[in-house]
Prior knowledge:
Elements: E1 3-7, E2 13-18, H1 25-28, E3 35-40, H2 44-52, E4 58-63, H3 72-84, E5 92-97, H4 99-111, E6 117-122, H5 125-131, E7 136-141, E8 144-151, E9 157-160, H6 169-185, H7 189-196, H8 198-201, H9 207-224, H10 241-250, H11 257-274, H12 280-292, H13 304-311, E10 323-327, E11 333-337, H14 341-349
Parallel strand pairs: 2-9, 3-4, 3-5, 5-6, 6-9
Antiparallel strand pairs: 1-2, 7-8, 10-11
Amino acid sequence: MVTRIPVDGDRPYDVLVGHDLAGELPSLIGGAAQAAVLYSAPLAEHAARVAAQAGVPAVLIEVPDAERGKTVEVAARCWDELGRNNFTRTDVVVGVGGGAVTDLAGFVAASWLRGVRWVPCSTSLLGMVDAAVGGKTGVNIDAGKNLVGAFHPPAGVLCDLDALRTLPADDLTAGLAEVVKCGFIADPVILGLIENDPAAAADPGSPVLRELVERAIRVKAGVVGVDLKESGLREILNYGHTLGHAIEKREKYTWKHGHAVAVGLIFAAALAQLSGRLDAATARRHREVLELVGLPTSYEADAWPELLRAMRVDKKARAATLRFVVLNGLAKPDILSGPDESVLERAYAEVAR
Length: 353
C-alpha cells in the first residue's frame, strides 16, 4: 500500500510513503531523456536499483557521505558531470540518501540551467519527515549551515520505508527529533504515540513508526503548501533549530542534525516558559518525550558564548535581532523576537551540563 500525501502550492506534488517505491520513479519524471542519480557510497547498491528502474538512461554520481557532501565544491563537481553528459532542461536530478544528499541534489537541480526537475528518494527518517519535503535545498559554508541554497519544489518525493530497516539505529533515533518537533508544534497525537510505545516508535518495521512518518509529513506538507518561501507560517518548522544549527556549526557538523535539534527543543521550551508563554508541564514534557527515545537533552555549559555568536548569523535572525520559534501552549507556535540576553542565558542553563 502506497500513501500519497499532497503538497499544495504553485507547483504541487505528492509525497509517496510505502515499500519498494523505486518503480514509482518513472511516473514522476515523464519526458526526461536522462537522469543524474546522486548518492553516497553506503547507498551505492540502492542507487543502482533506483537508476535501473528510472526508465531512462541514468548517470550515477557518487558524493561524500552526510554533511561532508553538502559543499559548494561538491555541487560544482556535480555541475561539471551534468555538463559532460549534456543535461538539458527536460532532464532530471535524483537524490538517493538522507537529508544531506537530497539537499545537495535539490540545490544542484535548482542551479543547473536555472532550474531542472528533481526527485528525492529519501532513505533516512530525518530525510523523509523533513529534508525531502518542502523544496528547501542548499549547502553549508564556513559561516553556517544551509546559508547558500534555493527554494525549488521537487517533482515528487519517494519515502521508501524499506530503507529504514538498514538504517543505523542512531540515525533512526536522530530522525525522531523532527517527528517530536511536529508533535509539539501541530499534532500532539504524535507525542501520545511515542509515550504509549517508545520501542515501537523506534522500530523500523512497526506500524507505529509508519504512522509517525505519515503524520509528520502531513504537518510539514500542510505548512509548506501555503508558505513555500518562509514568509510567515513556515517559520514554525524551525522550532528547536536556532540553537540546534549553532551546535552543529560548533561541532563542525559531526553531530547529527536530529541530536542538535533535540537539545534545541529543550532550549526553546525553556525560553518560552521563562517568557511566560508556556506552562511548566508542557516544557517538562519536551525532555520526557525526547529521553524516551534516547535523544540527547543537554550540551556543554561553557559553549554558550560561542553558540550565541553563531545564532546571530542564523537565517531566522532579522538584522541584529534574534528570533526564536516558541510555544504559547501545546501546538500553538509563535515567534519570540529579541529576547533579553539574560533570559537566553537562563534558558541555556536548562540544557547546560
